[in-house]
Structure formats: C-alpha cells, structure tokens
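Deviations from the work plan: none for this task. Representative record:
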Amino acid sequence: MSNEHLNSVNPNDIKYRRKKNAEEMKHQVITFALMIFLTLIAFVAVGYDGFSSWFTVPFILLLAAIQVAYQLYYFMHMSHKGHEMPAIFMFSGVFVAIITVIAFMTIIWW
Amino acid sequence: MHAEEKWTAETWPASPERQTLEAKNKFTGFWIFLGGETVLFATLFATYLALKDKVPSSDHMLAKDIFEMPLVFATTMILLTSSLTSVYAMYHMKNFQFKKMMLWLGITVVLGASFLALEIYEFNHYVHEFHHTFTSSAFASAFYTLTGFHGAHVAFGLCWILTLMIRNGKRGLDLYNAPKFYLASLYWHFIDVVWVFIFTVVYLMGMVG
C-alpha cells in the first residue's frame, strides 16, 4: 500500500474519525454499564434466599454468557469488519469447550 | 509501507492494529491462540465441575463453606473495570494520543495488580483459615489449578503490558508497536472473559451449593 493517499488527508477527515471514535467509546461505556448491571443481578440472585438453586444456576450462567458476548463483540471488537477468522476460531473453541465440559460432567465421573 | 516511519494524528491510519502485513498475521495468529486458550480453560472448568466438593472426609471444607461474597465481588468489580480502562487505552491509541494511552494502560496495570493482591490474600486466607491447601482434596486441587491458572494469566498480562510500556516509553506510537499494544489489550479482555465464568461457575455456583 502506498502512503500518498494517507498523507494527503483533508482536515475534516480527522475530525470525522475522532467523532466516530468518540461515538464508539460512548457505546463501550454503555456496554460496560450493562456488564456491571448483569454482574450485580447475578450476585443479588445468589445472595437472595427466595430462589431455588434450580432457577439460580441456569439464570446466572445465562447472565455470564450474555456478558461474555458483550466482552467479545464490543470490547474485543468482534462486531467490527474483518473479524471472520477470529469468529471461526472462537466458535470452534467454544464448541470444543462445551463438549469437554459435558463429557467430564456426564460420562467420566458418573 | 515502513512500519517505523513517523506519523501524525492526521496521517495515522484508522485501523493501525491491522495496517501492515506483520500486524495482520499477528492478529490472526493471536485469535487462533485465544481459541486454543478457550479449550484449555474449558478442560480446567470441566475438571473443577467434576471434582467439586469431592473431599476424602467430612472434616474438609466444601465450596459453600469457604467462599465469601464481599471478596469475590471486589475482585470481580476491579477486573471488570480494568477491562474498560484498557478499552480507553485503545481508544486513545486509535486517536494517536500516546500519553493518554500510556496513562490508561498504567491504570489498567494498577487495577490488575490489586486484583492479583486480593487473590493472593484470598488463597492465603483459605490455607490458614480452612486448611484448604492444594493437596488437601481433589476439590482443592481442581479449585487452585483453575483459579491459579487464571491468576497466572493475570500476572503474565501485567508483565506483558508493563514491558510494552517500558520498551516503547520514548518511542511514541508507530505501526510497529500499535499492533503490540492492541494484542496485549485483547489478551487482557480475554482474561476478563475467563473471570466472568470463574466468578459465576466457581464462586456464585459454589455459594448456591
């Protein structure tokens, strides 16, 4: 790639990019607030005695899965263009991970 | 393109972490590594779940006896916040604001170090208060291996970010080191991803019983 078109930027370009970056940062802060909120709900659900563990366990696992999706897609930018390969690697990893956990919890020790 | 040529905020590319061929290769390679890490931690989680509360005699402590909510809550909040501060660092990296990036990376390191300090205190507390040591039961071994492996990742991440900060402290941003900072922040987020499952599966599910 040549540098010529990079060096001949017009002054509005940087303003536009800064604005875009600032907007993305705002979304990241909102994502963070949601993650903290989900974490608080999980801790409250465990601290509160009224729920049975049959409800609490799947519920906090669901909250964790949502939070990890936020982390991957927003904080780690997997929602951006050019992340097809990362998606393949991560989904393959998650696929093997789920099978491993199921195998260990069902076949091996019971 | 010369990776080490001087840049200004105006000429700095929009995606500096994937501008050069080397950076693109690193980016792909690092995600392969993270996919592998996912599987690695899955085996440790699977082992922990299979061996949870498996103790040789009834005088050993179980998960619901040893975990305390305030400490887990504190470590969780610290690590989650450090994830946001490293997002801020990458935001300034994309805006070509080197000093601000370094400041936010520094805050990330401080938060990571306080997480590690709390974890060391926690393990020390378990060993002396409950005689919950690495060799005391299958449950304890699985617990310390899983959380200790995560703690080791935090320690490694701290050394990585600190090394990058020291080595590039006077260099400023260029296309040679921007991908390095970016990958270190990806690693830091991944540590947070693993912690989300640790606090849910190990601590919260442990307190549920």
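Chain A touches chain B through 55 residues (CB under 8 Å).
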